[in-house]
Write a structure and sequence with these properties.
Layout: E1 10-14, H1 21-32, E2 35-38, H2 39-52, H3 60-69, E3 72-76, E4 81-85, H4 97-107, H5 110-122, E5 129-133, H6 136-140, E6 147-151, H7 154-163, H8 170-179, E7 192-195, H9 201-214
Parallel strand pairs: 1-5, 1-6, 2-5, 6-7
Antiparallel strand pairs: 3-4
Bound molecules: 2'-deoxycytidine-5'-monophosphate (DC).
Length: 219
């Protein structure tokens, strides 16, 4: 429907770290029978690979060079997206402290974004998707009518991350993701904001479906 020769559509879910966007995207995809694509996992996988090769995440030339040497394979299992690099699935390592601390630097590199955006758009050649990230409504699928910006108060987001047992400086990651030059986190044109601070998970999914109905999705 946009940015590709596709007949399929994308629902774009963007927002800061731990805003609830992954959970909402996953449950929305389940309810609507769509594939959930976690674009952050793609930036995390490149970060995991760079760290494994002892590449400085701030050395954009070295990271761009790495991209030419590796094979990133994106797919889905019918429910959510999958990713391997050179045939290896990084699994739980995608959410380790070191990846959390370095993923914003890697995702600020224009060559990384260009490579991953192409792969992200590729999903709609075969499937209708709910894709979550930071620039899905603004850059990856700017023409989709279905866009939600999910937010929550910072202390609530930090508490959610801690409850999940993760070490993650969400404030510094948000600052970096919002201030980078290429595709910063913004409320995309046409997106509806949803604050999940006081919502249950089911409440957030119900509210998202209502937003999508208003945006014209037949659900
Ligand atoms: O959604 P997440 O927290 O797993 O994302 C990890 C990082 O990846 C995030 O801090 C910024 C980057 N990212 C991005 O730049 N663009 C996206 N569409 C998704 C994630």
């Amino acid at each position: 429907m946009n940015a590709s020769d596709s007949n399929h559509f994308a629902i774009a879910i963007d927002g800061p770290a731990a805003s609830g966007k992954s959970t909402v995207a996953r449950l929305l995809a389940q309810r609507l029978g769509l594939v959930m694509v976690n674009s952050g996992a793609m930036y995390r996988a490149v970060t995991w690979k760079a760290l494994g090769e002892h590449i400085d995440p701030h050395d954009s030339a070295a990271v761009a060079n790495l991209l030419h040497r590796i094979h990133i394979d994106c797919g889905h299992d019918g429910i959510s997206s999958t990713i391997t690099i050179d045939g290896v699935d990084p699994g739980d390592e995608l959410r380790c402290e070191k990846v959390n601390a370095n993923v914003s630097a890697i995702s600020a590199i224009p060559e990384v974004r260009a490579a991953l955006i192409g792969l992200q758009r590729g999903f709609t050649q075969h499937s209708n998707v709910v894709m979550e990230g930071r620039d899905i409504g603004s850059v990856v699928f700017p023409d989709t009518p279905y866009k939600i910006y999910i937010d929550a108060a910072e202390e609530i987001r930090a508490a959610r991350r801690k409850a999940a047992g993760e070490v993650d400086s969400i404030a510094s990651r948000d600052a970096a993701d919002s201030s980078r030059q290429t595709a910063p986190l913004v409320v995309a044109h046409g997106a509806t904001r949803l604050d999940t601070s006081d919502l249950t998970i089911d409440g957030a999914v119900d509210a998202s479906i209502e937003i999508l109905r208003h945006q014209g999705l037949k659900v």
